[in-house]
Amino acid sequence: MTEIRICHLYPKEMNIYGDRGNIAVLQKRLEWRGYSSSITPISTGDDFNPTIFDLCYLGGGQDRDQMLVAYDLQKKSAAIHSAAKDGMVFLWVCGGIQLAGAGYTDSDGRRIPGVGILDLDTSAGKSRLIGDLVLNAELDGETSTLVGYENHAGRTFLGPDATPLGSVLKGHGNNGADQTEGAVQERVIGTYMHGPILPKNPWLADKLLTWAIEHNTGEIPALSSLDDSLENLAQQVAISRAGMKR
Amino acid sequence: MSHIALSLAKAAGWMSRALGRGGGTTLPGMILLRLRPHILREMAQELEEIIVISATNGKTTTARMVSHAAHESEISFVANTSGANLPSGIATALLRRKPDEKYGIFEVDEAALPELVPQLRPTVLVLMNLFRDQLDRYGELETTIHKWKKMVESLPETTKLIINADDPALAYLGSLHQNVQFFGLELTDHASETISHAADSLHCLKCNSPLNFQQVTIGHLGHWECQNCGFSRPNPSFTGDKINLMGLDGSEFIAASKTDSLGIQIPLAGTHNVYNALAAYATCYTIDISATKIQKGLSTISAAFGRNEIISFDGVELMIMLAKNPAGANQNLKTLLLEEGTIHLAILLNDRTADGKDVSWIWDVDYEMILDRIASLTISGDRAYDLALRFYYSGFPATSMHVVPSIQELLEHLKSTIKIGGRAVVLPTYTAMLDLRSELNKIGATHSFWEEK
Predict the structure, then answer these.
(1) Residue B328 to residue B354: CA distance in whole angstroms
(2) pLDDT tens sequence across B324-337
(3) What pLDDT score does B82 carry?
(4) Residues of chain A whose pLDDT is less than 70?
(5) Mean pLDDT lowest for which of A25-34, B33-42, B225-234?
(6) How many Å apart are CA B300 and CA A57, to the nearest integer?
(7) Which ranges in B239-358 belong to alpha helices (H)?
(8) Burial readout B333-355 (b: 16 or more C-beta within 10 A, e: otherwise)
(9) Which of these, B178, B172, B107, B169, lies nearest to B144 by C-alpha position?
């Protein structure tokens, strides 16, 4: 049985928005298709081995925890770059998208470094961008609606090497100005969307799993379809609660 | 005081009740504050003793316990008993104060506290716990701690601060005030040595190092110390010891001050209610309520609306346990595990302003601990399908859960699932609890929340 190896970065520090829900979705959707999986938590002070994982998850945290994590990430920066280059799949959410970029300039003007696996930069805005978030997302030439929630002070702007994960239909997105949300570069995805993001967006979960399995086996798998009726109902309710009827 | 403003505000209360719109627990105060923004300060000045209680979890119950003991002690007081804990609710309570009521007992929303304390100028301020809650409304926990810190720093020395020593962040705030007494639970079997998933306040507020826990009672509450700078749980003046949790029926423990000790029995279940009772004991002790009155007041207390409240309808008993954030929900689940046997469980998730519009918190609740004890699972509320996904991805079969977004359907379903004389446990968010009680009130099963005594 193929084992998909998932690395959960800083689960103790970065877990503020039900982040373990994303991990549960990845695990269950693998299990239901006959794949096994392993989850390896990696905390501050631990080594990050770039050759032993297929997917790397990092969630959102409070400002202070994000700061602690940012400095630890610097020590893992070379290994993380090497993993990204090698096609490891990354989903870095909320604080994660900020840490994946060049850095974060906070409201006092202090600079918190990022690891730079996504071509983007972030600085604190005056207000927090909070609320439901609905996107029209595109990956591998396929499009899908994504729903979730955002709560961030950062304003993120993408450089030329990153493409947005989607365009904002409802909510603020990266910066509240240019209608973009998230960033994609090769197989690294950053997003402000929590909720958590994967339970109500099985299309994205399966996209990540397809990439992770390909990274592991070298072949693009044909994932069997699952009964996503609860997921779809939850997505529809979230869209209508966000003030959009469809 | 302007009579016109007062009369207008009072009239609004009568109208609001006549129209059946929430019983007028906040509208009169809202109008009054609009007309007279500084009225709280003026009205509070007329009181001799002002007790203000705040926390993420347990403030309603604790204020109710203190009120009950005060009542036993024949103290005449004004209180915001219906859980209307924003400035408008306090103003409404003060507006209705009778001239002989010289004590005020108020539970205050944790976000509104820093704004209300300078106006009310409490003689006793009780700070019980801070957990992550409604991040879209309150912001990060760190933000609330920071605002509370500024509030504590500007307290007059005469304000008696009563603080939970088991909450590291609050203990730190206590260290900033001269006139402080701590309360805390002694080592108990009803605790663990490990921190649960997604606990808060795990770092030392003095030096940022990770804290070590000798025991964890709820979330991040317990016996803690920083091994880097030596900051540790302060020695409490009021302790809770020999805790005996008697299933869903109640709890007992020994409460002690520096000089006395007292056996306390409460008809409310779970460690969280022991904390509430201990905080109430410390508060009552501080305002010189006698031991026998405290004992009697706490032992005869009934549940506050929606907090371990039992309502019967059509031969079925509903036990309603408000569950609005991860720490509170986890504590409710742990309390359910105190009883043997399987449970008919109904969970209601709304995402309105008072619930928090962000429902991601349900993924931080450890529902897994209860899965093998579920006799039936009914899921309801505005965001019922989010909750269904939470259980589905924990391995609970979709075919075994019943998802009914509307409250009417929920009650119908519970009636058809549970035998006459049986019991269902209902875990609602705040507005879902109000909806449920309003539906039960419509069919005559309970009273309105503003008739709460």
Answers:
(1) 16
(2) 999 999 999 999 99
(3) 67
(4) 244-246
(5) B33-42
(6) 51
(7) 271-286, 291-299, 326-336
(8) bbbbebbeeebbbbbbbbbbeeb
(9) B169
CB contact (8 A) between residue B357 and residue A149: yes
Read off the tokens for B284: 């009552």
Q: How many CB atoms within 10 Å of residue A13?
A: 24
Across the interface, whether the CB atoms of A149 and B360 are under 8 A apart is answered yes
Joined together, the tokens standing for residue A214 give 């390909």
Tokens 């006793």, located at residue: B124
* Same domain as B333, residue B417: yes
SS3 A234: helix
Q: Which domain holds residue B429?
A: 307-451
Question: What is the spatial distance between Cα B190 and Cα B150, in angstroms, rounded to a whole number?
Answer: 34
Q: Which of A14, A17, A43, A152 should be substituted to probe chain B, the one whose Cβ sees the most B Cβ atoms within 10 Å?
A: A17
CATH of the domain at B66: 3.40.1190.10
Report yes or no: A204 and A166 within 8 Å, Cβ to Cβ: no
A56 part of the active site: no
Alpha carbon distance B64, B43 (integer Å): 22
pLDDT for residue B15: 61
* Chain B closest-CA separation from residue A131 CA (Å): 7
Residue B27's pLDDT band, with cuts at 50, 70 and 90, is confident
Query: Residue B297 carries which side chain, given as an amino acid letter?
Result: G
Q: Are residues B130 and B277 in the same domain?
A: yes
Q: How far is Cα B88 from Cα B93, in angstroms, rounded to an integer? A: 9
Answer yes or no: are the C-beta atoms of B278 and B270 closer than 8 Å. no
The answer to whether residue A113 neighbours chain B at the CB level (below 8 Å) is: no
Residue A94 annotated in active site: yes
DSSP-derived 3-state class of residue A135: strand
User: To which residue do tokens 């009950």 refer?
Assistant: B68
Distance from CA of B442 to the nearest CA of A (A): 27
C-alpha atoms less than 13 angstroms from C-alpha of A246 in its C-beta half-sphere = 12
List phi, psi (to 5°) of B153. -65, -25
Could you tell me if B300 and B68 are in contact, meaning their C-beta atoms sit under 8 angstroms apart? yes
Same domain, yes or no: B268 and B355: no
Identify whether residues B337 and B380 lie together within a single domain: yes
The pLDDT of residue B451 is 61
Indicate whether B13 pLDDT > 80. no
Of A7, A8, A94, A215, catalytic:
A94
Per-residue model confidence (pLDDT) at position A245: 46
- Which CATH number fits the domain that encloses residue A118? 3.40.50.880
Peptide bond connecting B114 to the previous residue in cis, omega within 30 degrees of 0: no
Domain annotation covers residue A246: no
Nearest CA in chain A to B386: A234
d(CA B270, CA B359): 25
Q: Which two tokens stand for residue B309?
A: 């409240």
- At residue A139, the 3 state secondary structure works out as strand
Nearest residue to B330 via CA among B199, B180, B185, B134 = B199
Lowest mean pLDDT among A46-50, B357-361, B441-445: B441-445
Q: Do A20 and B198 make contact, defined as CB atoms within 8 angstroms?
A: yes
Domain ranges, residue A65: 3-241
Judgement on whether residues B268 and B403 belong to the same structural domain of the protein = no
Question: What whole-number distance in Å separates Cα of residue A136 and Cα of residue B407?
Answer: 33
Helix (H) or strand (E) holding A148: strand A142-158
Q: Does A136 touch chain B (CB under 8 A)?
A: no
